[in-house]
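Protocol step 4 of 6: structure prediction from sequence.
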Amino acid sequence: MTLSSKLTTLLSGLTIAVLLTAFSTPVVNHNIVSSNDQCGLTNQTFQHGEKLVYKLYYQLGFIWVPAGEVVFSVKDVGSAYEMRALGKTYSSYESIFKVNDYFYSKVDKSTMLPRNFVRIIEEGNYRLYDSISFDQKRNVAMTYHGKTKDSAKPQMHRLNNCMHDIVSNMYNIRNLETSNLKKGDKIGLDMFFDKEVLPVNIRYGGKETKDIKGLGDFKTIKMVPDLVGGNVFKDGDKMTMWVSDDRNKIPLLIESPVSVGSIKAVLKSYSGLKHDLSSKIN
């Protein structure tokens, strides 16, 4: 398994984590809520200039090695938001393996649905270019997938309503109102990634006070998604996420086993938040 795949796993985890405060009404245990219930939202949670920096760790034996960072940023460009996630290995880790990954989503302000998505992967000698052009009215998407932009091949895909990419999901779901979830309740969502619609089910794990390294104690909500065995995860693996229990609804810590070793992402710094980070305990 490549380090880029681990980075993508962490990015997926960050997107999933925001689901924990997603719904404004109680969810029946084991009920899977349709992603169509997330249509037509307006942004009341993030703003232009928000920046979240996550430090990524990879476990080697009993040691957690700081491998790199992922930086999320938001830019207001008039009728849309441009959302970027940049993942890079630290220079000290590059002698083992070098990663320089780029994720981009352009989201319509009026619908909070993506117009375009781009993923550019650079890891060692490996290259991948992946872009999606969404036609939300027709519920279709055109993907371009290949080693480079020039060699990428087009393919048309039929989508469900209100389909999001992996980056737009993270910001869209933060605008859903906080629900009174009960421990054990499950939430469901579909998102379009890597030329397919991916179903995700998440179990609510209750509230906890969590120490976030370098930032202090936070009031958090814990979520545990059901992972599907395959190239990234093994059957029975569990990812655990803790999200700020406030109006910002930002992921603070993600811990995840993978098919080789374990990884985690820890919020390192934040700036430009729309609301006070009231979940932080003074």
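Step 5 (inspection) to follow. Residues 12-36, 228-236 have pLDDT under 50 and may be disordered.
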